[in-house]
């Protein structure tokens, strides 16, 4: 069966080599045939269903009999029913136009060409082609799935707004290097990386648009969830996510304007709906503002949102997968190149973010946070935009890339958490004085380190203290008294490789 299919593909490829090449055929130069499938630019069929196609031969000019037959560029997407008996005889003496019909059978979701092949005097040539689009069978449940996705996005933004502490964000923005590097990676590195992967792997146009759209998205809740599980800088993660979601209202349409035209040229169905996407992003700022309003209206709501952040993010993710994945199994029929792109985009994005943060000499926790925020884009937002604003079946094909990226990101994130937990439990264990310092300071920014210097001095003597604030130690330790070798920058934390504290 596989041999027969491959042979068929080779034959089709051989026939297509003769498109617009009448000089290589034994047909006479004055042979003319005009075929039309009506005023429709594309033909449609449903998966696992037959559809009747009407064709009209408007004119035929030739000196002998000829035949027309129909073929598919990819029989795994659609096939001609009873192809061996589906042919049209053309006679120079017949009257035209003449209409005929034949059946096509949709096999799987996809977009291919239906070829009209004319055979005359023992030579064959493709004289006409039309796009054939195979859609999924319409299901009412897909409407529910679409709005469940939108619900998850809106609830996630409300919850994010309820956890935003402007004081903490302002502290990060006062020394904005980590945030600026993260935004650089999210809105400059990731879209260019997605475009490069799409070109390198030669993805089809809808899949390439889905990949670029995902790479242009801001950070999502999954990165915040992973930052909590991996004990990195959650405040920086939340700050980067908040800033990127605000900037996405302008940067996302801009990146789509820059990187999608090579894939949409000549295809009006794939033109990027910039206005609709912009409106969608602006509207998503409303639930974010609602969450921020309730947070400052009631500190209790802030505590509830912070407690719910981790479990609610997990619940929304499980809800999204449980309600959509069983009805979107077509994503797993994506070409191998789409799988490779979905695996490489978050992985390479994270590594590039880590490398740039390393070159900027940021602390380890900030480096890990930037890597997470760069590699983990809001794939749910990308899938929602594609579902609402692109036509069928382009939307289903384009959504494969961000959906697979979501699954790959979850897989890679779980792997990181498992490895980190194993290392933390069995290989590397914090010392008691470090644990005491962390427990004393906690995650609550309102709880300050005690100024008696006991814990601080212990941390300094053991080299664990990465940041010393002269206002918190009553002048016992001054920044001018800190001597170190390594990178001394004005970033979020002071990064020293060999600490040497004097007169403590």
Automatic annotation (TrEMBL):
InterPro entries attached to this UniProt entry: BilAc:Na_symport/Acr3, Bilac:Na_transpt, Na+/solute_symporter_sf
Topology relative to the membrane: Multi-pass membrane protein
Keywords of this entry: Membrane, Symport, Transmembrane, Transmembrane helix, Transport
MF term (GO), any: symporter activity
Protein name: Ileal sodium/bile acid cotransporter
Family per record: Belongs to the bile acid:sodium symporter (BASS) (TC 2.A.28) family.
Transmembrane segments: 140-158, 178-198, 234-254, 274-294, 315-333, 339-357, 369-391, 403-423
Organism of provenance: Strongylocentrotus purpuratus
Cellular component terms (Gene Ontology): membrane
Keyword Transport listed: yes
UniProt feature coiled coil, ranges: none
Chief location of this protein within or outside the cell: membrane
């Amino acid at each position: 069966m596989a041999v027969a299919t491959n042979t068929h593909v080779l034959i089709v490829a051989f026939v297509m080599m003769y498109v617009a090449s009448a000089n290589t055929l034994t047909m006479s130069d004055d042979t003319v045939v005009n075929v039309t499938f009506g005023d429709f630019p594309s033909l449609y069929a449903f998966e696992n269903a037959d559809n009747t196609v009407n064709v009209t031969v408007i004119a035929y000019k030739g000196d002998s009999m000829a035949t027309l037959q129909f073929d598919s560029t990819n029989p795994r997407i659609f096939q001609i029913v009873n192809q061996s008996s589906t042919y049209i005889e053309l006679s120079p003496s017949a009257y035209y136009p003449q209409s005929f019909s034949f059946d096509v059978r949709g096999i799987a979701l996809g977009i291919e060409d239906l070829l009209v092949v004319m055979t005359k005097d023992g030579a064959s040539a493709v004289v006409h082609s039309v796009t054939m689009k195979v859609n999924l069978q319409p299901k009412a449940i897909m409407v529910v799935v679409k709005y469940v996705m939108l619900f998850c996005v809106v609830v996630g933004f409300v919850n994010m707004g309820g956890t935003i502490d402007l004081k903490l964000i302002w502290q990060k923005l006062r020394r904005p290097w980590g945030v600026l590097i993260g935004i650089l990676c999210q809105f400059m590195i990731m879209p260019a990386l997605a475009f490069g992967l799409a070109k390198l792997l030669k993805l089809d146009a809808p899949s390439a648009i889905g990949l670029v759209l995902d790479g242009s998205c801001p950070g999502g809740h999954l990165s915040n969830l992973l930052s909590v599980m991996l004990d990195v800088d959650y405040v920086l993660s939340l700050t980067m996510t908040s800033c990127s979601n605000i900037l996405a209202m302008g940067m996302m349409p801009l990146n789509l304007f820059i990187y999608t035209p090579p894939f949409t040229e000549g295809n009006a169905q794939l033109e990027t709906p910039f206005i609709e996407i912009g409106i969608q992003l602006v509207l998503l700022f409303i639930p974010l503002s609602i969450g921020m309003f309730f947070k400052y209206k009631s500190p209790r709501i802030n505590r509830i949102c912070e407690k719910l952040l981790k479990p609610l993010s997990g619940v929304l993710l499980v809800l999204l997968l449980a309600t959509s994945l069983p009805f979107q199994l077509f994503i797993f029929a994506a070409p191998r190149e789409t799988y490779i792109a979905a695996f490489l985009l978050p992985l390479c994005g994270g590594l590039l973010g880590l490398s740039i943060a390393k070159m900027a000499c940021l602390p380890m926790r900030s480096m890990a946070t930037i890597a997470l925020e760069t590699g983990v884009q809001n794939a749910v937002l990308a899938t929602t935009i594609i579902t609402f604003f692109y036509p069928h079946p382009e939307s289903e094909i384009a959504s494969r890339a961000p959906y697979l990226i979501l699954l790959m990101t979850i897989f890679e994130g779980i792997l990181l958490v498992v490895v980190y937990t194993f290392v933390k439990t069995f290989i590397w264990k914090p010392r008691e004085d470090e644990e005491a310092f962390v427990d004393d300071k906690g995650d609550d920014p309102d709880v300050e380190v005690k100024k008696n210097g006991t814990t601080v001095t212990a941390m300094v003597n053991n080299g664990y203290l990465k940041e010393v604030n002269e206002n918190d130690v009553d002048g016992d330790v001054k920044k001018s008294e800190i001597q170190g070798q390594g990178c001394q920058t004005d970033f979020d934390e002071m990064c020293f490789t060999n600490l040497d504290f004097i007169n403590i």
